[in-house]
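Weekly structure sync, notes
Attendees: PL (lead), two postdocs, one rotation student
Agenda item 3: pending single-chain targets
PL asked that the sequence for the first pending target be pasted directly into the notes so everyone works from the same version. It is reproduced below exactly as submitted, 261 residues in total.
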Amino acid sequence: MSAAFSDVEFMICQSARLVADSSTVFVGYGMPQIAMILAQRLYAPDIIQVYEYGAIGPEVATPFRRNMMADARNSYRSYSWTSMNTMVAYAQAGYIDYGVLGAAQIDPYGNVNSTMIGGTYERPGKRFTGSGGGNEVASLCWQTILLMNHEKRRFLPKIDFVTSPGYLDGSPRARENAGLPADTGPSRVVTSKALFDFSPESHRMRLVAAREGLSKADVLGEMEFEPEVATRIEMIEPPRKDELDMLRNDIDPDRVIIGRP
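Predicted structure, written out during the meeting:
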């Protein structure tokens, strides 16, 4: 029987297993950052993490501390410490394999809202921190991995604001026609219940794996739109002991991000 774990730990462990070693990863704050530290410690020692403020290739110092983005701990042993403009230019030139981002809302084509919910842009019901570098990451990296809690209010046919582009309206070459690089876009959506990829034909989200003990109905029942479904839905392996030990004892012992089971 597996140990108890939080939804956040589940998403972090899923994400850490997805990146290929020796790849370059543009990392967002929070869950994405913890996931990539875990990936580098256990699965992909030669990934090159890059951050929007300019750090290239850090071995992020742990334990994690709140608001440590852009400080010396986050930049420990970096190859270089450049600028936001330089990092985005590298992404635009095709040097960044993955972007890893969080999201508040998502639509069937992987468009992401992390800006505001309800009301208007000028007078929103709730405003978030916004894009940061998220738009550039989703626009320019070859693949984008998105992390988000699996709640019905987050999976919508139409999101309140498009902060970062997925496949836009899903039509052929929609991204290219909008001026974005060819053959880029979201590749995986990691949630607290499931894993999705995107259909190469329709560019709609596609359910490919579910958390142990959950059925297709359990997953789809917490979405306001119906994604495509793979012929075979795999079972996602729960977090392993070595993953949980690394997260809880080394990376985030104060549980700033991972929370408690």
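Discussion points:
- Residues 46 and 139 are 25 Å apart (CA to CA).
- The helical segments are 7-16, 31-42, 84-92, 134-140, 174-177, 216-220, 241-251.
Action: rotation student to compare against the earlier draft before next sync.
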